[in-house]
Design a protein that fits this description.
Elements: E1 8-12, H1 16-28, E2 32-36, H2 41-47, E3 49-53, E4 57-62, E5 66-68, H3 71-77, E6 84-87, H4 101-115, E7 121-126, H5 134-139, E8 145-160, E9 163-176, H6 182-195, E10 202-205, H7 209-230, H8 234-239, E11 242-244, H9 245-265, H10 274-281, H11 291-297, H12 304-317, H13 323-342, E12 346-349, E13 354-357
Parallel strand pairs: 1-2, 1-6, 2-5, 3-9, 6-7, 7-8, 9-10
Antiparallel strand pairs: 3-4, 8-9, 12-13
Helix pairs in contact: 3-4, 7-9, 7-10, 7-11, 7-13, 12-13
Length: about 350
């Protein structure tokens, strides 16, 4: 394929997942790859990335084809139609209003619409959680978008300025949020072609994207949340418990997972029991801190609402009891609020003991 005919892909989010995503697209060679990089922008412009990858080995000085400091800059300076807008940032609807997914991608979507009103923008949300596509349906003309779900299993973390450490193999499951949307399904399958690197990563089409998202919530709603609350990697969260790993598994992880299974069942989605053991075992033997734990330790807001808030709201609507998930949600809301206060997003008046939203 000539350079002119290659689709343009822009990756938003330059953490451990985003950088490996952009590198995998570049390694494939079927697209022109752009990245939006904020905190490490000047460093990467000058030095590129150092990537220590279990999939690709050690890469020094890698850069995507184009680098932008914001989506607004990309929309203004690129002069191209971005066929794929790949979002790998954390989905935090309760964060600053300008950091919601809809506001982040708005410049690109609007620029694409002006450039070619006959062509849809394919937005791929490579993010955790359930119901995250609803924000985009509410904020945009959904008929102008291909809304694609990306569910990624990968152990990849940014450990320093421009330095990525990938310790878990990249497995990506891609599918349309709406299983009846033919354009979105075709766009998802095309993206798989652009992302697949034989013998390096595993990329599959997922026709049941909502089922897959509920399934991944078994891990995220139980293990990701617990480690964030206690600030421990998974093996320590298991071994530091009352009776070794048994009590953490039996008193926290497994009950939370069973509540997710029960909520999904009210939507007619059956999550097989075997996946409880699968997710209980997936990270117990590696020194791995899940994403929410890493975010809390860095003082960054967590994906609390899409991982716990949205499932619990569905549970409440469908009369499902969620004692374990609700306890985790209540405690993590306190942690999230503490982080918001540190960032000036919340203000607490110590004289009146009242909470005020920061403007």
């Amino acid at each position: 394929m000539s350079e002119e005919n290659k689709p343009n892909v822009i990756v938003i989010g330059a953490g451990g997942v985003g950088v490996v995503t952009a590198y995998s697209l570049s390694f494939n060679g079927g697209s022109k790859v752009s990245m939006v990089i904020r905190s490490d922008y000047r460093h990467v412009i000058k030095n590129g990335y150092t990537i220590n990858s279990c999939d690709y080995g050690k890469i020094e000085g890698w850069k995507p084809d184009f680098i932008y400091s914001s989506t607004a800059e990309a929309a203004k300076e690129s002069s191209v139609f971005f066929d794929y807008v790949v979002v790998t940032t954390k989905n935090i609807p309760d964060g600053p209003k300008n950091s919601t997914v809809s506001e982040i991608i708005r410049p690109l979507v609007e620029a694409n619409d002006k450039m070619n009103s006959d062509k849809k923008t394919s937005v791929i949300l490579v993010q955790n959680g359930i119901d995250l596509e609803k924000e985009l349906i509410e904020k945009f003309d959904a008929s102008r978008l291909n809304l694609i779900s990306g569910i990624q299993f990968i152990g990849s973390t940014k450990i320093g300025k421009g330095v990525i450490d990938q310790i878990g193999k990249d497995r990506l499951f891609v599918g349309s949020f709406d299983p009846s949307a033919s354009d979105s399904k075709q766009a998802a399958q095309k993206y798989i072609e652009l992302y697949s690197n034989k013998d390096y990563n595993i990329v599959e089409y997922e026709p049941r994207s909502r089922y897959a998202r509920w399934k991944k919530l078994l891990y995220n709603a139980a293990i990701n949340t617990t480690t964030a609350l206690v600030g421990l990697d998974v093996p320590r969260a298991l071994q530091f418990s009352i009776n070794g790993q048994t009590s953490t598994e039996k008193m926290i992880f497994e009950p939370a997972m069973r509540e997710i299974i029960a909520i999904a069942a009210t939507e007619g989605i059956v999550i097989e029991e075997e996946f409880i053991d699968f997710f209980l075992n997936i990270s117990k033997n590696i020194l791995f801190k899940p994403s929410m734990c890493v975010d809390a330790e860095k003082g960054q807001l967590m994906e609390l609402e899409v991982i716990l808030g949205n499932p619990i709201r569905i549970a409440n609507k469908n009369n499902v009891s969620t004692p374990t998930l609700s306890m985790l949600y209540g405690l993590l809301t306190l942690v999230q609020s503490k982080l918001k206060e540190q960032k000036g997003l919340l203000k607490f008046d110590e004289k009146t003991l009242s909470l005020k939203e920061s403007s």
